[in-house]
Amino acid sequence: MISEWVSYMMFYLLATVFCAVLTYCMYVHHVHQKYDHIPGPPRDSFLLGHIPTFSRGAKSDNLVQDLFLQWAEKYGPVYRLNSFHYVVIKVHCPEATKTILMSPKYTKDPFVYKRLFNLFGKRFLGNGLVTAMDHDDWYRQRRIMDPAFSSTYLRSLMGTFNEMSERLMDHLEEIADTKTPVIMHDLVNCVTLDVICKAAFGVDLNLFKQTDSPFQKAVEQCLKGMVFYLRDPFFRLFPKNWKTVQQTKDATELLRKTGNKWIQKRKTAIENGEDVPKDILTQILKTAEEENVNNTKDHELMLDNFVTFFIAGQETTANQLSFAIMELGRHPEIYKRAKAEVDEILGTKINIPYEDLGKFTYLSQVLKETLRLYPTAPGTSRWLHEDMVINGLKIPGSCAVIFSSYVSQRLGKFFKDPLKFDPERFDVNAPKPYYCYYPFALGPRTCLGQVFSQMEAKVVLAKLLQRFEFSLVPGQSFDIKDTGTLRPKSGVICNIKHCS
Q: What are the strands, taking DSSP E only, across 140-216?
């Protein structure tokens, strides 16, 4: 009797599972029918869609952005990608880019940005500025953050930019004397992390002396883990990946614990009436108090944005500088022109005043062209909640639209000879790109720290050109590596010597 009852239960359980799988497959088929009029590469499988391709890309040295570029050239400015029942539309159409990115009604894609709330189960970016879905929640945070990035405050950071850059110059002095090749990405990474720690949180890590910083390693590990987490939904299931998963969770926890310690220390200092640095953290705490947002939930938001600053800010500026150094090393004529401009403006000045930043016309063009070829944060996405016609194709609503700055900025129809490094594209008299150049995104969700980042990049690069001559070590790779942000695969290995 019992065995018969168990048999019935097993039968009904299997029947239920079969019906559920069948129903889901029918739904996936319905989604395919709904979107398959949009061109796109063949799916790897009915259920997985293009996931195997992305998974292979994440585990190999191949850059998935180059694959997106190939597909854009083959399938046009609008094409489709599948993942189970989920569909994303890749768009490289300036009019649609303008319409969607410039409007607050198109929220960020919840599939990507909600996933970044956690990283392998540990709270990561949470509901910070980058990941906030609700426009009102985002706007409230942005209102609190904005005063900390005002032009008046950023102008006051020139001392920090100069001080941290001088540490790099001192370090390069020692290297130039030894005539030893050096990996420039490692060095500029130290500078940008030192800058953001000091400018934003009043903490001096001094990474040129503290060469084995767990904080720096944690940022690196989180970026690495983020790539696997987003592109391979099965990554954490395989035992061979468990070590990486645990390392990423530990790194995430370290970042948040460090942020909590720094924030609490500053709060206590303010409450005790102590003198505190007039940095970004003080400004945020001051504005938060005025806005009466000091509960536990808002404290977690502060930690979310603490992590966001390091993930979205420090690494991207370091990568931009590395790519700029790489391209200057590859193009002697551009190098000489940039150096001549720096020498004319700075002469023998040690510290760069704020007023001089606007005079670096050609250097600014070099940095903009660097971001065109190498947008360190290569794209963004929005949720299409209504039907829309893009480039003559009807796109049904309830899907994600992905805008890849890497792809649009390398398409020949927007930029002549697109793979050529040519700062003249950004000359004041050159034609301006129309909604196809957006390394910091566009519209209301544009990057809050872009002015901070470009001021820092100008100071570091100008000092480097003023004080040293550098050349690339022959034989190194100029490929791009994807570790959550795009960086030079070789790290840019240079020979450094004093200016003659």
A: 182-183
CA distances to 26, 98, 429 from 425, in Å: 50, 21, 9
Compute how many other C-beta atoms are within 10 angstroms of the C-beta atom of residue 6: 10
- CA–CA separation, 95 and 415 (whole Å): 16
DSSP conformation letters of 376-404? SS-EEEEEE-S-EEETTEEE-SSEEEEEE
Give the Å distances, CA to CA, from 378 to 51, 215, 257, 315, 406.
Answer: 19, 25, 29, 13, 5
Give the Cα separation of 314 and 452 in Å (integer). 11
Domains for the chain: give ranges and CATH numbers.
36-498 (1.10.630.10)
Q: Does the annotation flag 447 for ligand binding?
A: yes
Q: Write out pLDDT tens, residues 395-445.
A: 999 999 999 999 999 999 999 999 999 999 999 999 888 899 999 989 988
Four-point Cα dihedral 388, 102, 439, 395, nearest 10:
0
Residue 366 DSSP code = H
Cα separation, 91 vs 74, whole angstroms: 13
Of 168, 154, 261, 266, which Cα lies nearest the Cα of 199?
154
Task: Return d(Cα 51, Cα 487) in angstroms, integer.
Answer: 24
